[in-house]
TrEMBL record:
Its EC number is 7.6.2.9. Pfam families: ABC_tran. SMART domains: AAA. PROSITE patterns: ABC_TRANSPORTER_1 (PS00211), ABC_TRANSPORTER_2 (PS50893). Keywords: ATP-binding, Nucleotide-binding, Transport. GO terms for molecular function: ABC-type quaternary ammonium compound transporting activity; ATP binding; ATP hydrolysis activity. This is ABC-type quaternary amine transporter. SUPFAM superfamilies: P-loop containing nucleoside triphosphate hydrolases. InterPro entries: AAA+_ATPase, ABC_SmlMolc_Importer, ABC_transporter-like_ATP-bd, ABC_transporter-like_CS, P-loop_NTPase.
């Protein structure tokens, strides 16, 4: 379990996160939604250990990791732009994080991940020869071979569309369940959050507006901000939201 206790962060005197408390379970996908500047990416970076918090604690499986360096936390991230190395082929990108860590994972396990993400036929390709969906799967494979305990994704679907987008959504769900990860996704898209997550965290002005299952966000928005934010982002009227997310009412 990952637990955040009273996380607070200021930048240049402005409160970015103000008392964030929540718990996330293994095998669970949590999407983080909120307006631009609400603190979503800052929260992701604090969990990762990339940005220090002013106060509070990050607890993983009962251990306070707040002061543990990023490289030792066992968490990993897939960035929005994939951050792949253009001078390396797909396979070299996948195993790049294993340099000097050859005992972390066996060759058989690496192959299993490659096969799982359907990358076997693309390993020798240059990055510029890959489609957007293939690049995303290479980025996911590169992260998974490091055996992360928590998988962080920053706008993982923003550059994708259509069938490719739906395929990657399903792969993220499968990865989370198969590897029993805690997966945290920052997204600007409520439709993504509501259709692929077990829980949705909605932040406004550095505070939690709601943390609940998708169907509860839709059926029982915690306040006017949540309801208006979701409807505005989806560009639908309240009476039409059922047409988009009917399954969430079950």
């Amino acid at each position: 379990m990952l637990e955040l206790r009273d996380i607070k962060k200021q930048f240049e005197g402005k409160m970015i996160l103000d008392g964030i408390n929540l718990k996330m379970q293994r095998g669970e996908i949590v999407s983080v939604l909120g307006p631009s500047g609400s603190g979503k990416t800052t929260l992701l970076n604090i969990i990762l250990g990339l940005v220090p918090m002013d106060s509070g604690s990050v607890i993983f499986d009962g251990v306070d990791v707040s002061n543990i360096p990023m490289k030792d936390r066992g968490f990993n991230i897939v960035f929005q732009d994939y951050a792949l190395f253009p001078n390396l082929n797909a396979y070299q990108n996948i195993i790049y994080g294993l340099k000097n860590r050859s005992n972390l994972i066996s060759k058989e396990e690496v192959k299993e991940i490659i096969d799982f993400l359907e990358l076997s036929f693309h390993l020798t390709k240059r990055i510029d020869q890959l489609s957007g969906g293939q690049k995303q799967r290479v980025a996911l494979a590169r992260t998974l071979v490091t055996k992360p305990k928590v998988l962080l994704l920053d706008e993982p679907l923003s550059a994708l569309d259509g069938v490719i987008k739906e395929t990657i959504k399903e792969k993220i769900k499968e990865i989370t369940k198969q590897y029993n990860l805690i997966t945290i996704i920052v997204t600007h898209d409520p439709e993504e959050a509501l259709t692929m997550s077990d829980k949705v965290l909605i932040i406004n002005k550095g505070k939690i507006s709601q943390y609940a299952r998708p169907k509860d966000v839709i059926n029982r928005p915690a306040n006017n901000f949540v309801e208006e934010f979701i409807l505005h982002q989806l560009k639908v009227k309240k009476e039409n939201i059922y047409n988009l997310f009917g399954e969430c009412y079950a």
